[in-house]
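S.,

Sequence below, as promised.
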Amino acid sequence: MYRFDSTPAHALRNGFHIVARLVAAAVLALAMAGCGLFPEVKDETAGWSADRLYQTAHDAMMQGNYQRAVKLFDQLEARYPYGRYAQQAILESAYANWRSNETEAAIAAADRFIRTYPNHPNVDYAYYLKGLVHFREDQGLIGYVYELDLSERDPKEMRSSFAAFKELTTKFPDSQYYQDSLARMRYLNNAMGTYEYNVARYYFNRGAYIAAANRAQGVLVNFPQTPANERALDLLYRSYAKLDLTQLADDSRAILVKTYPESPFVTGVKDRAWWEFWKKDEASFGVQPTGQLAERPWWQFW
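The prediction came back faster than expected:
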């Protein structure tokens, strides 16, 4: 018969502790030695002047290398926090972040510029850029290739975009971005009205007629004189009819007939063939954004 030697439990614990200390020491020694294994990363911009940093960053941005531009603008702001280059670095980094789809960083930079330089001659662009970021925030690359229907998106971003453009037009009526901001505000207002109508229609299609009527009323009250009003009146009439609220239904119908006598909801004549379900209503949002109306590049403020 074989005889097995038994080891006391405390001896095993002591052995484990010794091994653990040896392993920890070896790891520490390797880590310390490893510092010399890798070559030191050199900063190519070390010793660069503010002018050189800015010009290099600006050139990178103009060439579409937005990530490099952001990195250089950040270095410029950190090394030379005062002066016109630092101011411009914040503004241009906001733009570069936006173009590289770093929307939170773009908005943060624009807000920082507004707080730090509220009287800067180009602060209107910071408000304008905020509006642009929220205007297309959740569309990504596809949104630049194909204009997505804003009425299908989260209204939170539309409201934020509208607020930024509203602040710009209120504070800077002489801004070169004033007219384009107004156009985008009309576009967003129409889109938000259409979004509310889509929600009302969703409730109606599921038999929630009270909710449908309330949302349709919201379209008329909160977004007057928008293309969605016509459809909202018709939906309001049908919702009241489903609820057997005859007087309210008749009143809604009368307003629809008086306000939109040529409406297909009144005449019964559809404005397009049944099979053209893919075709979008040209007047869904009305005025389209006109694009930047600047007489010179926005970054040339000096």
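The first helix runs from residue 9 to 34.

Coffee later?
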